[in-house]
Each structure stands twice: as C-alpha cells, then as structure tokens.
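Hi team,

As requested, here is the filled-out complex form for the iron/sulfur cluster run. I kept the field names the same as last time so the parser does not choke. Let me know if anything looks off before we queue the next batch.

— J.
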Amino acid sequence: MVRRFEYTPTLGWSISRYDTFNLCKRQYYYQYYPREDREFDFLKISTLKSLTSVPLEIGNVSHEVIKVLLRRLQKTAKEIDRERFMEFVRRETLRICGEKDFIEVYYKDADEIDPETQILPKVLAALNNLLDSPRLPWLMKEALETKDEWLVEPEGYGECRIDGMKAYCKVDFLFPVGDEIHIYDWKTGKKDEKKHPKQMRGYVTWAHFHYGVDYTKIKPKVAYLLPEYEEQSVPLNEFDIQAFSDLIREETDEMYGYLENVETNKPKLKSEFKMTDNLRICSFCNFRELCGRD
Ligand code: SF4
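And here is what came back:
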C-alpha cells in the first residue's frame, strides 16, 4: 500500500532536481523558483520551462503508450493486435506532440518539427522492441496473477522518505512476483552508467519505504528500448542503500545551502544562483533567452 503525505513546502530531493542543481544554479532557480524572480515575468519563465525537445518527446510518448499497453494487459490477456496498436501509437504521437512547443523551433534551430518523421519512427521502434522482447511473455506468465497489484506510472510525484528526508522517486512500472518486487524503468535514450543505477537506488528505497519489503527482494531493472531491447539489472543490498542515503543527505544539504529559509523552501537571492560558464550546457537549456545565451 502506497503511503500518502500531506503537502509541506519542504524541499524534496529528486534525481532530476539535483541534476539540474548540479548543471547550472541559474537553471535550477528558473526551474524550481520561477515565482521568486523579479526580473522576468512568471508566465515567460513558465513558457520556457514547458518547452520540450525531440529526444524528450520520444521518451515521453513511449512512456505514455507503454502505460496504455500495460493497463490494457491488466484488463485482458488477449493477444495484442500489433497493427491496431501501432495505429494507436501513431495517433497518440501526433496528438501529444501537437500539444507541445519544441525548443528547436523556439530557438530557431528548426523551422518546424514533424512528429511523423522525427518522433514516430523511434517510438514505433521502441514499442516493437518491447513487444518482441522475451519480457512481455514472461510478464504474462509470471506476473499476471498479481495484475491488480501492478503499479503503472502511479499518480503523484512518488514521494517517500529517505533516512527521514523528503524525496521523490517515481517508478515507471512495479509489480510483485512471489515474495519479490520487480521495478522497471523504460529508457529510450543512451545508457548512463552513473545516473541510471542511482535512479534505481531511489526506486528501491521508495519500494522499501512503501511496501516494507527487504532490499534483497526488490529487483530493479533499467529497460533500454533503443536501439534494441536490453535490460540491465541493478543488484543492491543494504550497504548500497546506506551509501545512497548518505549521498541524498549530502545532496539535500547542498540544495538547502541555497535557501534563505529551509522550512518554507524560500531561496536566497537570484544573484546567488550563478550562471554556468559552460556554454555547451547553455546550448541545451530552455532558459538561454533569459541569460542572453541564445
Ligand atoms: S542558459 Fe546557461 S547560464 Fe542560463 S540558465 Fe541555462 S544553463 Fe544556466
């Protein structure tokens, strides 16, 4: 049973939050404290914040359709009509992308984004790879019995506590098999040997917190969907988890260091959030217009 939390303004660690903090303090400020800014309009910052990119949308659309696929498997074990499913994937890709503004267009790196040729082929490849993988028949054989307990992209932000600290670790797909809990994280991008295992440690901690299952019984896997389907297990025990908790404490304290008030999560002045000197980071940043780096 997933535990619920009352809202508090306290800063909560998440892998994406700390990654942004690490990348550029100014980007972190715009991303997490846009209402505090006195230089630019909140609406302007929000518009930039919501820009997406082609690689991001390939990942996002793939997640959305996998969610539908898994929820459909929860309802019926009937064989999937591949052609109809792929037509659905096509429609969803066009619908989702049609609602988005792309950073490539906003910053005039491209006149327009054509989802049909720039996004759909990779989403279809990712989905076909998943459907052709041995994981799907395994799932139908081993995990179907507990399908009512599957967690498929659960609502909310995945709040939990890590050693008493507020943290967010949202799993893509979690399901029990026997006395074990399996966790899958879908990836359409490249392997990241540092970031992905760290993310999986977060999911294990989340599952342990909510389900009270021993760490050794939680089996996290990163499932790479492109260019081929490939799974990577992340074996963990309580020592890895202790080291992870220590790291989260360190990273949370670092972020606290930029707060004027830790209880209310009020940031220090914007001038404390320095712009990075690394222009390569700026070239991928949504906020580059605000920093004059567009
Ligand atoms: S444009 Fe560069 S300096 Fe400005 S927020 Fe983005 S990464 Fe930071």
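Two things worth flagging: The beta strands are 151-152, 159-162, 165-168, 173-177, 180-187, 218-224, 230-233, 259-261, 266-267. The chain has a mean pLDDT of 94.

Thanks,
J.
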